[in-house]
Amino acid sequence: MVQSYKFKRASDFFLSFFGLVFCAPLLVFISFVLLVTLPGNMLFKQQRVGMNTRKFVLYKFRTMKTQCDMKGNLLSDEERLTAVGIFLRKMSLDELPELWNVLKGDMSFVGPRPLLPEYVPLYSPEQTRRHVVKPGITGWAQINGRNAISWEERFKLDVWYVDHQSILLDIKILFITIVRLFQRKGINAEGHVTMPKFTGSIKRGVDEAK
């Protein structure tokens, strides 16, 4: 297991390094387009939770405006998402800055997607096991529904990956991810332009009520 982890970390480091070098022209072009179309910072930075529930800063390209209502609350995702943002999300190009997170060691190429710190207290003990491994740019849940599946299904797939992780499985996930990019399936949850917030596990709520 230790050797497998070291191999995966070495692969992540070299692939993310060469990925950043190879994608440098594209990164510069997208940055320029965002600077022209979106006022403010072209990068979206947000605290997420990684391996062993350690917090880190996730980097993505911005796809939404920062418009607020009269009370100072952010408008809905639907109202803030831009045309450029929609395209970046469809092609998953907004995820490119996460190569820096992989290079730093916050993330891996394959693993459960990193989520918000506020979700951690809401997980059931079984769901918490998704943090046994590093989060990934893509993962088992991403190629089996992505945002189109429920949180419950998503977490089950994450835990399944934790129990079955291997180099061969990672290669399979990466290959299918490339295919899914062209199919553009599962980008949005039904009735949402992204994914609704996680408000707690149904099973967890039942267990606590007993």
Distance between the termini: 38 Å
In the sheet with the most strands, the strands line up as 1-2
Number of helices: 9
Task: Please report which band the strand proportion falls in: under 5%, 5-15%, 15-25%, 25-35%, 35-45% or over 45%.
Answer: 5-15%
How many structural domains does the protein architecture include? 1
Helix proportion = 40-55%
Element-by-element helix/strand order: HHEEHHHEHEHHH
Low-confidence stretches: 205-210
Query: How many E strands?
Result: 4
Global structural class: mainly alpha
Using only C-alpha atoms, the radius of gyration works out to 17 Å
Largest sheet: 2 strands, antiparallel
Overall average residue pLDDT = 87
User: What general outline do the C-alpha atoms trace?
Assistant: globular
Outline the fold blueprint.
Elements: H1 2-22, H2 24-37, E1 43-49, E2 55-61, H3 77-80, H4 83-90, H5 98-104, E3 108-110, H6 125-128, E4 136-138, H7 151-164, H8 167-183, H9 202-209
Parallel strand pairs: 3-4
Antiparallel strand pairs: 1-2
Helix pairs in contact: 1-5
